[in-house]
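Reading a protein record of the kind used here takes only a little practice. To see the layout at work, look at the sequence and tokens printed below.
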Amino acid sequence: MRLAVLGATGRTGSTVAKLADAADDIERLDWDGRAAIPERAEVVVDFSVPEALMAKLPEISERGLPLVTGTTGLDQDQQAELREAATRAPVVQSGNMSMGVTLLSVLVEKAAAHLGEDYDIEVAETHHRFKKDSPSGTALLLGEAAAQGRGTSLSSAAVFGRHGRTEARAASEIGFSVRRGGGVPGDHEVAFLSEEEVVGLSHRALGRDVFGRGALRAARWLLGRPPALYGMRDVLDL
């Protein structure tokens, strides 16, 4: 598999590059991300920033190149551009490429569906001090799973801050809390809290290799797929 990495000098992109270089079935192409995508590329893996991804989307779309993207922080217009590109090229998009988080999202959806509104839902996350987007893409992914289980939309249920509020918490809310500090790769917990018990579902990344391995697994899976917008649940057949 001939692989081009967008964002190869970043924290997770460099991990993808390292793992690709060590893999027997991958040839990572020499590309700085600024020039045109190498002609020999068969798939692009992206861990960059929204502006860099948007700059390359027209070329990816025109060439029908499979794309695996873990870039987070896309606004509504950028997300719409990505969906449009996925009508001409197969795309795997996820706020977290780890197998553990993908499985966790399934469990969160099931818990939200079965526990119901007697249980309040709170999503907490911690990342390193350099992370720019907040909440994290993973936290939003887990919030979306909880909303799906509840049969609602995250846009209508999410509460991203309670400072200064004077009213009680609504049962329909999905709350988010964020910490930034140190070098934490990523800690996430979804808590279901009733007046009688607390159920917690959590994931802790011990390093960035777990994200890189998931991205490469997605890249292998994506080769030969028809144009569509896929997620890691598709990759793992969940």
